[in-house]
């Protein structure tokens, strides 16, 4: 018990150590027995901390913390790699943690949350990199009857959910870029939606930023006039074009019609540690383990969005973590060699369609086919 307690206390102390020390390639421990008289406690401390990575997730009720915990489960390798998911106040807090919180090496953030820090941290796009583009969070602007365009919202109340959520951060930022000045409220969306349904209060719209479809719009029948607004947006430095369709929301969007909108990339980001440093090696190992085990995360036991994660997908405005790019480059070469060696192997019919035109997904499916073929012949 004493060994476990001391190891946990000192592990936490290491995470709270000086930020400057994180750049050092070694983890010198002061005030402990010398190597000649190493105690079991000392060895436990060093072993537990040798390959520990702090991963800032988000609020308990959000998707990011679930992604963080699932990453931790899949890459866990005992003393060889131990990821600590951290509950935080949300997207902006995760950026702050990645920049300044001791012991945090990686974080799940929205790509546009970096803009908040650009004036205070001019070189932020050099200090933060991305490992994976995880999933898009689509912008949903849901309005009451009588509101037919974004201009109709000017001067009216628009709810952006509670502080700390993606909608509460990115929503006002997007409205500012669109030059739509509204009266912002930050109450739970469930309350705002019920007020709109009942005709109570004066909330004109609610803004969601999350992966579609959203259950709140599927579980209930909405009266005529409730709808999603189209978002005419052309600045794709930080955002991605997207659509809401009748297949997403059959009760709100007529069959065959689409609503133009944008999506905010939610990414696994990493601090841009100097190559060869201790912290860099930790994140590089996390990257290697994660990329090699992505197929495990596509299991139904994990978040369904993992099935669409493409390690080759880029993030507008950000550089990729060097170890991630190296992994991709190496595996492209390996995949090309494997494909060359199997040049006489016919490609299964429908493989291209199953990959939805994604070359990386097509390559992965082809390799899975070869593996299956070798096992059954």
Structure overview:
There is one protein chain. The chain is an alpha/beta fold and 377 residues long. Helix content is 37%, strand content 19%. The chain contains 13 helices and ten strands. The chain has helices at 2-15, 40-50, 63-75, 91-100, 115-118, 124-127, 166-178, 189-198, 278-292, 294-297, 322-341, 351-354, 359-375, and strands at 52-58, 82-87, 104-110, 128-143, 157-159, 183-185, 203-210, 227-228, 240-245, 258-271. Strands 1, 2, 3, 4, 5, 6, 7, 8, 9 and 10 form a ten-stranded mixed β-sheet that branches. Residues 1-33, 337-344, 349-356 and 373-377 have low confidence and may be disordered.
Outline:
The chain has 377 residues and is of the alpha/beta class. Helix content is 37%, strand content 19%. It has 13 helices and ten strands.
Compute the average pLDDT.
81
**What portion of residues is helical?**
25-40%
Tell me the span between the first and last alpha carbons: 53 Å
Indicate how many domains the architecture comprises.
Answer: 2
Structural Rg: 24 Å
- What is the helix/strand order? HHEHEHEHHEEHEHEEEEHHHHH
CATH fold annotation of the largest domain: D-Maltodextrin-Binding Protein, domain 2
Regions with little confidence, pLDDT below 50 for 5+ residues: 1-33, 337-344, 349-356, 373-377
Overall outline: elongated
Largest β sheet strand count, sense and barrel closure: 10 strands, mixed
Helix count equals 13
Which structural class should the secondary elements be placed in?
alpha/beta
Q: State the CATH class of the largest domain.
A: Alpha Beta
Strand content: 15-25%
């Amino acid at each position: 018990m004493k060994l476990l307690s001391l190891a946990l206390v000192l592990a936490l102390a290491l995470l709270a150590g000086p930020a400057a020390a994180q750049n050092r390639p070694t983890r010198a421990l002061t005030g402990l027995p010398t190597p000649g008289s190493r105690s079991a406690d000392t060895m436990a401390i060093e072993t537990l901390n040798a390959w520990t990575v702090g991963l800032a997730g988000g609020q308990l009720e959000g998707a990011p913390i679930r992604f963080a915990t699932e990453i931790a489960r899949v890459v866990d390798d005992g003393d060889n790699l131990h990821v600590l998911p951290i509950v935080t106040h949300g997207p902006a807090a995760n950026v702050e943690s990645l920049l300044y919180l001791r012991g945090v090496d990686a974080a799940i953030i929205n790509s546009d949350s970096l803009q908040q820090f650009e004036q205070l941290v001019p070189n932020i796009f050099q200090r933060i990199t991305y490992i994976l583009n995880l999933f898009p969070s689509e912008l949903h602007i849901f309005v009451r009857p009588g509101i037919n365009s974004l201009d109709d919202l000017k001067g009216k109340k628009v709810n952006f959910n509670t502080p700390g959520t993606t909608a509460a951060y990115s929503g006002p930022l997007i409205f500012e870029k669109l030059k739509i000045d509204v009266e912002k409220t930050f109450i739970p969306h469930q309350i705002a939606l019920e007020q709109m349904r009942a005709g109570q209060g004066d909330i004109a719209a609610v803004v969601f930023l999350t992966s579609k479809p959203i259950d709140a719009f599927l579980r209930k029948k909405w009266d005529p006039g409730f709808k999603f607004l189209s978002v005419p947006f052309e600045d794709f430095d930080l955002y991605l074009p997207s659509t809401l369709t009748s297949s997403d929301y059959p009760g709100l969007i007529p069959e065959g019609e689409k609503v133009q909108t944008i999506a905010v990339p939610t990414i696994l980001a990493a601090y841009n540690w100097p190559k060869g440093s201790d912290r860099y090696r930790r994140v590089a190992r996390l990257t290697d383990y994660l990329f090699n085990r992505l197929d495990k995360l596509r299991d139904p036991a994990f978040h369904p969005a993992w099935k669409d994660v493409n390690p080759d997908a880029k993030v507008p405005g950000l550089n990729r973590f060097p170890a991630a790019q190296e992994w991709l480059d190496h595996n492209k070469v390996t995949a090309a060699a494997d494909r060359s060696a199997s040049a006489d192997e016919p490609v299964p019919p429908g493989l291209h369609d199953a990959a939805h035109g994604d070359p990386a997904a097509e390559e992965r499916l082809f390799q899975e086919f070869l593996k299956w073929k070798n096992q059954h012949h």
